[in-house]
Structure to design on (402 residues):
């Protein structure tokens, strides 16, 4: 296996190319699973490198396979591809050419860095055992692309034995540009959504005794739902229950027939998530019934909590140290309550998710994810490619068939 200094300098030599790829992709942001231009661009680069690809997975997803001359296991590298419905306000020369759409989360850089890693891996394919599967996935922001790609079999043929994904930007704060965050265990939260309809019986505001007031029932309900977090959830285990929408009534002196509520639950524990969904339904049912109303309740399980594998995380952490030095590793000890559909792969395959900081206050670059002024310090891109390629090669070497 090549030494780490060689891979790092190889990645550095690709830096300008990675920036060009990223800027080209930045100009053509597309949404969700429908990414025709983005997908065509990525497919063209991979084909130019001589990599076998499969396109059209979950509509716009691409899987590429770099097989070595030697038999062995398969390591996957994943990049998401989709942009956001945001109008860019950065004034960079490569700003979005698609009005109302912007790569405001850095997924353009993820694709470019994975292309860089692919180039490094092709150049070194005689030096590792097994295969590297490149996973370019649409729909991370919405509606989710990992689950449909898995359903279409991307973790099989050849079977994926471990996986690595990377997020750029400033998801975790106070990390200098070019440092890489790694974390063991739960790193990001699940993303669930609920809908509650509190059904009463409307009537005159002056004659509440002839009605069942859903607004008063709702006021009791909200406090009780918050108690599920404050009284029933283990205090050391993070959980958020947020009601983001509440709607009921049309006039100051009329008791309405119903109130609607919508919200989200986030937690890093799968069991806690199942428990709260059940308890919410019990509380909604008993409070509305006890106060003579009725209810509708829906709980949609979205992205699962993102939980990393210890052994793969350790290997990637050691790889970062060997490539760039110990001081470039940041230990993430507190999870983000944000969510990522990378979690679906990690439910099935041991792997990890790492965070490359592209925040550089000295250059005036502070990436605010999903903001119209989102920017990245492009100088760090080669590091992303180096870590992806070196981790894949290192893992395959360690787990080679002897
Ligand atoms: Zn995002
Ligand atoms: Zn993102």
């Amino acid at each position: 296996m090549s030494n780490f200094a060689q891979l790092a300098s190889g990645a550095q030599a690709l830096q300008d190319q990675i920036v060009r790829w990223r800027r080209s992709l930045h100009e053509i942001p597309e949404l969700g699973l429908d990414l025709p231009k983005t997908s065509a661009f990525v497919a063209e680069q991979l084909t130019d490198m001589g990599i076998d690809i499969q396109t059209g997975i979950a509509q716009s997803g691409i899987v590429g396979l770099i097989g070595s001359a030697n038999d062995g296991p398969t390591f996957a590298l994943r990049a998401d591809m989709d942009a956001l419905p945001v109008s860019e306000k950065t004034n960079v020369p490569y700003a979005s050419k698609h009005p109302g759409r912007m790569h405001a989360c850095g997924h353009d850089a993820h694709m470019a860095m994975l292309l860089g890693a692919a180039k490094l891996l092709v150049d070194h394919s005689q030096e590792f055992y097994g295969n590297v599967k490149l996973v370019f996935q649409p729909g991370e922001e919405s509606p989710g692309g990992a689950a449909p790609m898995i359903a279409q079999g991307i973790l099989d043929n050849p079977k994926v034995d471990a996986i690595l994904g990377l997020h750029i930007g400033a998801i975790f704060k106070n990390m200098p540009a070019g440092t890489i965050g790694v974390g063991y265990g739960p790193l990001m939260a699940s993303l669930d959504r609920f809908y509650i309809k509190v059904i009463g019986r409307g009537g005159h505001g002056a004659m509440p005794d002839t009605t069942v007031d859903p607004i008063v029932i709702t006021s009791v309900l909200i406090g009780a739902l918050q108690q599920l977090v404050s009284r029933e959830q283990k205090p050391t285990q993070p959980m958020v229950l947020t009601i983001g929408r509440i709607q009921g009534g049309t006039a100051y002196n009329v008791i309405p027939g119903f109130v609607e509520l919508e919200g989200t639950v986030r937690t890093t524990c799968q069991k806690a998530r199942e428990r709260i969904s059940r308890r919410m339904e019990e509380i909604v049912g008993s409070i509305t019934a006890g106060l003579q109303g009725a209810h509708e309740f829906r709980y949609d399980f979205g992205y699962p909590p993102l939980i990393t594998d210890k052994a793969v995380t350790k290997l990637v952490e050691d790889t970062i140290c060997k490539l760039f030095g110990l001081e470039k590793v940041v230990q993430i000890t507190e999870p983000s309550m944000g969510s990522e559909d990378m979690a679906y792969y990690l439910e099935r395959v041991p792997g990890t998710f790492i965070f490359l900081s592209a925040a550089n206050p000295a250059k005036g670059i502070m990436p605010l994810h999903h903001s119209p002024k989102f920017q990245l310090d492009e100088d760090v891109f080669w590091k992303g490619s180096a870590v992806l390629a070196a981790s894949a090669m290192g893992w395959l070497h360690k787990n080679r068939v002897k």
About this structure: The mean pLDDT is 96.
